[in-house]
Design brief:
The chain is mainly α and 93 residues long. It is built from 3 helices and no strands.
Length: 93
């Protein structure tokens, strides 16, 4: 299986599209499934492998990577908000 750099570039796009879907009403618990489906679709239609099974496998990898990117980004954002709130509370004392 050849590694496609196009697939790496598609991971943040998948994450963005799932964010858009969430703003349109997708429940957060379905976000990982949406990442996986979009990853498979992007793998099938945008990657240039000879074998469709390789494209689907790379799509699965893109979808699961996008899920991790989304989860870690959300966790980092929440941590930064907590740190900011702690600093503000400390300054008030």
């Amino acid at each position: 299986m050849e590694f496609s750099y196009k697939g790496v570039a598609l991971i943040p796009i998948i994450t963005f599209l799932v964010d858009v879907l969430k703003s349109l009403g997708l429940k957060p618990r379905y976000a990982p499934f949406a990442c996986l489906v979009l990853g498979i679709l992007f793998g099938m239609f945008f990657l240039e492998c000879r074998d469709i099974r390789e494209n689907i496998l790379q799509g699965i990898l893109m979808g699961t990577s996008a899920t991790g990117l989304y989860s870690n980004g959300r966790r980092a954002s929440n941590t930064m908000k907590e740190m900011k709130n702690k600093r503000e509370n400390k300054n008030k004392e």
